[in-house]
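Researcher: We're teaching a course module on how sequence relates to structure. For the next exercise, students receive a sequence and then see the predicted structure as tokens, so they can try to spot secondary structure elements on their own. Here is the exercise chain.
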Amino acid sequence: MPDNHGNDAELLPSHVTSPAFHAQINKVNKVVMELIEVALRLRKQEPLIAMLLGTTDEVLDAYEKAEKEDLLDLCRLGLPLVILRVNTVEEVTLLASSGFSSAQMLRNLSKHITLEPYKPRSKT
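Model: And here is the predicted structure for the students to work with:
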């Protein structure tokens, strides 16, 4: 009976797409990992980093604790680490016609961001 507790990555094909597309996904994954590294360095000074990335501080903590080599292996599988935010026909059409200047486009892109309501400081 095969051992189901081994390295699952060994069971995956080396490429799930053509080599050319696989190479592009790897490039994107590498840049995403670099972005996460910068986020980890700057998150104390930039409290909105997790929210802008569409994640939580707990997830960033997990990335910080993870072994870098394991994360790089994950990147090499040829599966994207990110999902497109502009991912409906309507959003692509809106982006193509009005760019990021559209209020609707900005709402769509920032819908996962939840900011605390602004409270003016009281004068004392």
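Model: If you want an answer key for the exercise: Residues 85-124 form one domain. The longest helix spans residues 19-42.
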